[in-house]
Design brief:
single chain, about 150 residues, mainly alpha, 4 helices
């Protein structure tokens, strides 16, 4: 073997060793990152658990006892049952019935109707007209009352 061949094989061996070292370092870095991520996840879970315990304790401390709650609810319910109907009765609106719209007729229409009634002596028509006149009077009274 010549010196060039020996140098070539040595260079190839060095390159292979460097590639193996590079792969090994990459593998170690990946494993270290996984361990770091797992440790960070555990720490985050512990912090969340501690926060949940603190919130649960705060809710427990803030909650009234069952006896105090029952007494307060009974008293407030009794007061509410007395005050609520009185307070709501002031909000009730008086029921009203709207008046019909009063239709106005001209004098010419009134005279034409009088002429037609004088020409027709049917008692039924006269009674209907009299009833209609009474309804118009009721509408006028209703409109004045509002």
């Amino acid at each position: 073997m010549s010196s060039w061949e020996i140098a070539f094989f040595a260079a190839c061996a060095v390159i292979v060793v460097l590639c193996l070292v590079l792969v090994w370092v990459s593998y170690l870095a990946r494993e270290a990152q996984k361990a770091k991520d797992a440790e960070q996840a555990v720490q985050t879970a512990q912090e969340e658990a501690a926060m949940q315990r603190a919130m649960s304790q705060a809710q427990t401390d803030a909650a009234p006892t069952d006896e105090a709650l029952d007494t307060a609810l009974a008293n407030k319910t009794f007061i509410l049952l007395i005050v609520l109907p009185i307070a709501l009765s002031a909000c009730a609106a008086r029921p009203t019935t709207p008046c019909p719209v009063l239709v106005t007729y001209s004098t010419a229409d009134d005279l034409a109707l009088k002429a037609e009634l004088d020409a027709s002596k049917t008692p039924v028509i006269h009674r209907y007209i009299r009833d209609y006149g009474g309804l118009r009077a009721q509408v006028r009274v209703c409109a004045k009352g509002q």
